[in-house]
Amino acid sequence: MRDKNFYIALLCAAVFAGCLYFYHKEMSAAAIKEGALDSLKEFRLSKTPSKAGAEAEVSDGAAEPVFEDAQAPAVQQEPPAPPEEQVEPAAEIKVYILGEVANPGVYLANERDRVEDVLSLAGGATDQADLAKVNLAEYVSDEQKIIIPKVGDETFAPEPAKETTKSKPAPTQTASTKTSGKININTASAGELTALPGVGESIAGSIVSYREANGAFKRAEDIMNVRRIGEKTFEGMKDMITVE
């Protein structure tokens, strides 16, 4: 009985010693892990420069000079584009076309159209049309009658075209014109001014109104001060006008 108690006590002591050993081992591992984490934090902190240190490094480095008074170079702006020259709208007219066309009849056109344009409005010519006897490039006029003849028709005679602004007669000799045939833009009437290329009744009226408001033109080029007269229109009339 005495030996049995001895062995039980010995076994308990061994178990206690084993528990104590494992406890110390776990505590040592935890301490080592915590120490490693602290060392890692210290290492990271030592590698991260402080704000003051960073500012010192910047101040020690070579910095580019800053000129507060320096002004940015001015951006060169392109000059505004000149206003586009306004073209006087073409007047609407009615033209009667018949003969060897697909759809003869009265068609609405404008004074800048030609016979070829009206023929297209009528659906074109038939296979029997003799277009060689028709001036397809002729400007049409209001109330004009166009006949497209048939091949072999010897009795065909083209209708005379009415006088249009596209085929104006030379101006009559008046006080506003000289023997050279030039028109004096300081004395010409609105009707006489319409004889100039590119000048209709509306622009002619603008010339007269400008002249009455601003006085006589000093140079021929001054006519470009009138609304709707640009360089292109002036180029077409400069050899036909005078201020003297």
Question: What is the topological layout?
Answer:
Elements (H helix, E strand, L loop, with lengths): L1 H46 L3 H10 L31 E8 L5 E6 L4 H7 L23 E4 L34 E2 L5 H4 L7 H14 L16 H7 L3 E2 L2
Parallel strand pairs: 1-3, 4-5
Antiparallel strand pairs: 1-2
End-to-end distance, in Å? 158 Å
**CATH evolutionary superfamily of the largest domain:** Tex RuvX-like domain-like
Quick one: overall form? elongated
Name the poorly predicted regions.
Answer: 163-175
Share of β-strand residues = 5-15%
The main sheet comes to: 3 strands, mixed
**Number of discrete domains:** 3
Structural class: alpha/beta
| Largest sheet, spatial ordering of strands | 2-1-3
How many strand elements?
5
Instruction: Give the fraction of residues assigned to helices.
Output: 25-40%
CATH topology of the largest domain: DNA polymerase, domain 1
CATH class type of the largest domain: Mainly Alpha
What is the ordering of alpha helices and beta strands?
A: HHEEHEEHHHE
Mean pLDDT across residues: 76
Radius of gyration in whole Å, from Cα?
Answer: 52 Å
Question: How many separate helices?
Answer: 6
CATH architecture of the largest domain: Orthogonal Bundle
